[in-house]
Design brief:
Layout: H1 10-15, H2 23-37, H3 52-61, E1 66-69, H4 76-82, E2 90-94, H5 109-118, E3 124-128, E4 133-137, H6 144-147, E5 149-151, H7 153-159, E6 169-171, H8 173-176, E7 180-185, H9 192-196, H10 199-203, E8 206-207, E9 216-217, E10 220-226, H11 239-244, E11 247-250, H12 257-267, E12 271-272, E13 275-276, H13 281-294, H14 309-329, H15 345-349, H16 356-361, H17 363-382, H18 389-404, E14 409-412, H19 417-425, H20 430-437, H21 443-459, E15 463-468, E16 471-476, H22 477-497
Helix pairs in contact: 12-13, 12-14, 13-14, 13-17, 17-21, 18-20, 20-21
Length: 498
């Protein structure tokens, strides 16, 4: 019901024909309107249109409490926080009511008595849908008093009431969320004895405070989120509570690169200095592919998951690397290069839970390994596979020949645009590979693609590569190996001489 601000008393409310309905009925009816109008309350949530969102809608239409079950970074909390939009824009409550009670369906003895005393002159307040959503992050130190409530000796002394009197109850978060939605995130972190306190609310829809013989029927929809690994790692959801949660909905990571790119582009901070950053599309593909590679890597703990936040922070690091270069060279524009992708390592290492083999390799090495695999995978979408001689021998031959003559190229992630272009254009056959294959749209894209080719040839063991600080040198693979062997033999000779 819209907020008619001229309705200020219970009598006015009755005159306007107000009919109260439960929160779940409210959610259900408003959802039906959205479905008929072709609109959605889950704005900005991508990849769930045919999977998770329909299941949530089914649960709401069934008037069910629900739990979202999935690995970290799968938008579980965001989904739950979107549900409040299905509530009415405003709803009336008895003014000053601690439990935000429906004027036509009071809950507590105090409010019932007040309505008897004041009748139609009882003042009414209006609360917005924003104020009807509350949530609690489940932590081991959460108590029954936090969620449900407890007796308050101070209140009893102040009011001069007996401790068995309903008036001395100090209500917890869930009762105070009456006429609204209450979410509990990371449910398994809640101690089993605390979960037991939720059983009555989930089934009988009422609460009991300690030994009081008073039951208060609440009108609240309770929703949960949990990570499936929490069932064994940090805690578990007790069986009676799982049985009372009507719908268990499984979330998931993006199922294709395009969806992942759309999510990352939406969430990442990509506008710098009030202007857009030029990011070649294949760079976005590489960043997203890193997450896909991590989600199947033998070095990464797949039970822990790879959060969507990984690609968001990775893209922001890539842009910041380009922004720093722009500042150093006094450039007005900010353009991302392939070398910037390797600056995502700090964004990756903190978000990857490694298994034993990964720990042995080291977090930084695993991160660089994943970046390399992502680059190679995306490269083969645009260019012939360098290891397939039938497809690639003619295309890459002039370029490989140039390096086999002892030529090298050194690029830096801080070099100016002019120097960057001169370096890449000096490599015979490199520009031809790009022009023949992908037909870049502009000069900037062509240059980044040329660097892309060099890095991908290294990932396929065609070219050698040496990294020193912010400088990268590409050279002939065989020559690079022989050079390393020569340095090793020189070292041995020196040792022998000593």
């Amino acid at each position: 019901m819209e907020n008619p601000f001229n309705i200020k008393t219970l009598g006015d409310l009755k005159k306007h024909g107000y009919v109260s309905r439960s929160v779940k009925d409210e959610l259900r009816e408003n959802l039906k309107k959205h479905i008929k109008n072709g609109t959605s309350v889950f704005e900005g949530i991508k990849g769930y249109e045919k999977t998770v969102i329909p299941q949530i809608e089914h649960a709401i239409l069934s008037k069910h409490d629900l739990i979202l079950l999935g690995l970290r970074g799968q938008a579980k909390t965001r989904l739950l926080r979107s549900l409040y939009k299905l509530l009415d824009e405003y709803t009336p409550i008895v003014a000053g009511s601690e439990l935000r009670e429906d004027p036509l369906n009071p809950l507590t003895a105090a409010t019932k008595q007040r309505l008897l005393d004041e009748g139609d002159s009882t003042p009414i307040e209006w609360i917005s849908r924003n104020d009807r959503y509350a949530e609690k992050l489940a932590t081991p130190d959460t108590t029954v008093a936090d969620l449900i409530g407890d007796i308050d000796p101070i209140k009893a002394a102040t009011l001069r009431k007996n401790l068995s009197d309903e008036h001395v109850i100090n209500f917890g978060l869930i009762p105070r969320s009456n006429r609204g939605l209450f979410a509990i995130n990371e449910l398994p972190d809640l101690q089993p004895r605390i979960q037991v306190a939720l059983l009555n609310i989930m089934q009988e829809r009422d609460i009991q405070i300690r030994g009081f013989n008073v039951r208060i029927p609440l009108d609240v929809m309770i929703v949960f989120s949990a990570n499936p690994e929490d069932y064994t790692n940090r805690g578990n959801i007790i069986t009676p509570l799982k049985d009372r949660i009507d719908a268990q909905i499984i979330t998931h990571y993006p199922k294709d690169i395009e969806t992942g790119i759309a999510i990352t582009a939406q969430e990442a901070w990509s506008r710098r200095n009030g202007s857009d950053v030029e990011i070649p599309y294949f760079i976005r593909e590489i960043i997203e592919q890193i997450a896909f590679e991590a989600r199947k890597s033998e070095y990464v703990d797949q039970k822990s998951g790879v959060s969507a936040r990984l690609t968001i922070t990775a893209l922001e690091h890539v842009i910041s690397s380009a922004e720093r270069r722009s500042c150093l060279n006094g450039d007005d524009s900010i353009t991302v290069r392939l070398c910037d992708v390797y600056h995502t390592v700090p964004a990756l290492t903190g978000k990857l839970e490694l298994v034993y083999e990964g720990e042995q390799e080291g977090a930084m090495n695993v991160a660089r390994h994943l970046i390399g695999k992502a680059i190679n995978t995306v490269f083969k979408k645009y260019f012939p596979d360098p290891r397939n001689k039938k497809q690639s021998s003619e295309l890459y031959a002039p370029l490989i020949s140039w390096f086999s003559k002892g030529n090298t190229i050194e690029v830096s992630d801080v070099m100016s645009n002019i120097d960057y272009a001169k370096k890449l254009e000096s490599v015979s056959g490199l520009e031809n590979v790009v022009i023949k294959t992908v037909k870049p749209g502009n000069m900037t894209e062509k240059l980044v693609m040329m660097e892309f080719v060099l890095e991908a040839l290294h990932q396929n063991s065609v070219l050698g590569k040496d990294d020193l600080d912010n400088h990268t040198t590409y050279s002939d693979m065989v020559g690079s190996m022989l050079g390393s062997l020569g340095r090793f033999q020189e070292g041995q000779d020196e040792f022998t001489d000593i």
